[in-house]
Amino acid sequence: MGKKIKLDRIVKAPGHKLAKELQTFFREHGIFVVNLIGSPGSGKTSLLEALAPLLGNRAAVIEGDLATDEDARRLNKLGLRSFQINTVDACHLDPGMIRDALQNMQLDGVELLFIENVGNLVCPASFNIGEDMKVAVVSVTEGDDKPAKYPTAIEVSSAMVVTKIDLLPYLKCDVERMKRDARAHRPDIQCFIVSAQTGEGVREYLAWMEEQAEGALQHQE
Amino acid sequence: MHEFSFAEQVLEGIITELGPYPEAKVVRIRLRAAPALAIEPASLRFALESLSEGTPAEGAKIEIEKGEAQAECPKCGRIDAPATPDSICPKCGKPGLSPAEAELIIEEIELDG
Q1: What is the domain partition of chain A in residue ranges?
Q2: What is the CA radius of gyration of chain A?
Q3: Is B88 helix (H, G, I), strand (E, B) or coil?
Q4: CB contact under 8 A, B83 and A188
Q5: pLDDT at position A217, please?
């Protein structure tokens, strides 16, 4: 007869400790951190471009891509200070990469930090990189079935931003279905319907984001 | 996709517990994974089988249960329920309910010898 040992030993997600340290660092510096996750080409950088003129100096971006510094250059050109991480083969950002990026960044006056994760609707959902919240970016061109097909990305996200809605006249895409499916997996998810091209919905998203940031920072005081 | 790193930590944890039983072999491992961890049981089982070769846990029967979604209430602590949109605790009615941190728990191991 085997001997049973009750352990109830907790195994934390990889990088858990460092993610907590990053969170503390951001809190102490009054920085609210948003981890943007979404497929390649879902419009994460375009969303940031649309936000850039509204954000000015109080925001910064960490860009994650396998290769090139194109995204950081796009945003820097618009006056949104951005730092590029190249993950080479890695399919998501991890807390170690964020720690290293922070050593190369100037965060004076920054209240809002966006971390644009590697384009991937699967892996980034499983990693905390010190953020206050994840936001899922899903474009209408990907198909309205994506929130249902990638439920984990939705479950971990406080908001879903549906992008490229200026293309809706040319597509068969039911935005209501996207919202419904998202809410089925995460009842409290906030849904924003935006177009980075026309600017529609961008201010609403930012206003909500700022409200969340204010709430989080006040909560800490 | 990150199942291997979880498997490494699980094995490490189990081997540490074997300290007082140097001759023991692990015949069964029972785990419970929070749904938000996005752990695929088949991948985790494969990772554990691969990594445990040559360790006292080699060949152990691996049971993985997907736990309930959990939330953290300031008064009741951890509860087996998802966080609600209005953040009201379904148990005590107090506000401030938030999603609990996702964890993998090594609930129990069974030893032979």
Answers
A1: 16-212
A2: 18
A3: strand
A4: yes
A5: 81
pLDDT classification of A221: cutoffs 50, 70, 90: low
Please say whether the beta carbons of A47 and A135 come within 8 A.
Answer: no
Strand B71-73 relative to strand B61-66: parallel, antiparallel, unpaired?
Answer: unpaired
Residue of B nearest to A10 (CA): B105
- The arrangement of secondary structure in A16-212, i.e. its CATH architecture, is 3-Layer(aba) Sandwich (3.40)
Contacts of A23 in chain B (CB under 8 A): none
Q: Do A126 and B111 touch (CB under 8 A)?
A: no
**Domains of chain B with CATH codes:** 3-68+101-112 (3.30.2320.50)
Of B2, B83, B111, the CB nearest to A3: B111
pTM: 0.80
Q: What is the pLDDT of residues A26-42, one digit of tens each?
A: 999 999 999 999 999 99
> How far is residue A99's CA from residue A18's CA, in Å, rounded to a whole number?
8
**pLDDT tens digit sequence for A94-111:** 999 999 999 999 899 999
